[in-house]
Amino acid sequence: MTELDPIIHAAARLRITAALATLDTGESIAFPRLQELLDMTAGNLSTHVRKLEDAGYVAVEKTHRGRTPVTYLALTRQGRRAFEDYTETLRSVLGERP
Asked: Do you know which CDD domains this protein is assigned to (predicted)?
C-alpha cells in the first residue's frame, strides 16, 4: 500500500493544504483570512505553515499594505502536486476509483 504524505497527513496541515488548494494557481490568501476560515490560533497556524513551507509546499510572502505588514500564503507547484498525490492515495486506500 502506498503511504500517505506525513507532511500533509497531520489534521491541521491537511486543512491548510486543502484550503489553499481551492485557490487558483498563482493566487494567495492573507494569513488572517486563512486563520479565520480555519478557526485556528495564529500560533498554531504559523507552526503548521512553517512545516509546509519547509517541505516546499507553501510559499510565504511578507509584504506591507501601506505601513501594515501583511503575510500572504499560497500553494507552490510542488505543494499542489503533493496534495493531488495525497488525495489520489487516500482514494486508493478507501477503495475508490479515480
From this structure: HTH_ARSR
Q: What is the pTM of this model?
A: 0.91
Whether residue 76 has pLDDT greater than 80: yes
Mean pLDDT of 41-47: 97
* Cα angle 15-20-25, degrees, rounded to a multiple of 5: 155
pLDDT of residue 94: 86
Which tens digits make up the pLDDT trace of 81-92?
999 999 999 998
**Domains assigned to the chain:** 6-89 (1.10.10.10)
Torsion angle of the four alpha carbons 80, 98, 1, 14, in this order, in degrees rounded to the nearest 10: 40
